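Data card: per-record layout.
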Amino acid sequence: MSSVLHPAAPGQDPVNELARPSVRYRPISSHLAITPPVSVVIPAMNEAENLPYVFKTLPDWIHEVVLVDGNSTDRTVEVARDLWPGVTVVQQLGKGKGDALISGFAACTGDIIVMVDADGSADGQEIVSYVSALVSGADFAKGSRFANGGGTDDMTRVRRLGNRVLCAVVNAKFGARYTDLCYGYNAFWKHCLDEIALDCTGFEIETLMNIRVVKAGLRVQEVPSHEYLRIHGVSNLRAVRDGLRVLRVILEEKGVRRAARRRPAAIGVTTARGGVS
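The structure for this 277-residue chain is written out next.
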């Protein structure tokens, strides 16, 4: 696997000058190209109105988009196929964001996986920053709204306080140095999934990933990110309920040694591809 972010020489076209029979470079700009294929996973349930904003920001150099549909009753799947004809649609068999992401990860064919929410709160143009962190040596690129250069337009005082307290607990118990904990915009090399063995179904999935990458000794780099307001609809996140689930994950993980953790059984998914990329 090549993990290269390759600067083109002045005046070179990364498509023509860098392309070789054995290596496919994906141009990011006239001066930058990468070789690893990038998969973007988008869990969605009744997000038809938001998807146009989400897909509009996605860079055209990504390898694939995997949309995990949580049994939507609107036109979420149809809109996704109209916007990105080569989209891979995974019909979620279970419930919850964690279950949706695990199903989406299983369907990815790229070397790098990026997690993007379907509510319009994430800017797809930031993906280049995550990929840059990974090809520069990180195993896991963790988005942070509170790192220098990050920000949020969508956090109540209760959520901000809860995130700060839970982040401090994780840092203290696991030796991490996170500035943000409960944020879903992250990216990682696909092979990391073998090290973290995800096995939860709800919003606590992000916290579980953040803890297990540290416990696995993987290299983590925070990436400043700006969280925007949800454009349409209402979030399924409940601050108190989901905060307690996050706290339970933290306490459980502290008492579980990595070697003793059993891998979950494979999750069955049905995949339908719409159109031709």
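Known properties of this structure: Confidence is low (pLDDT under 50) at residues 17-21, 259-277. The longest strand covers residues 38-44.

See the next section for split statistics.
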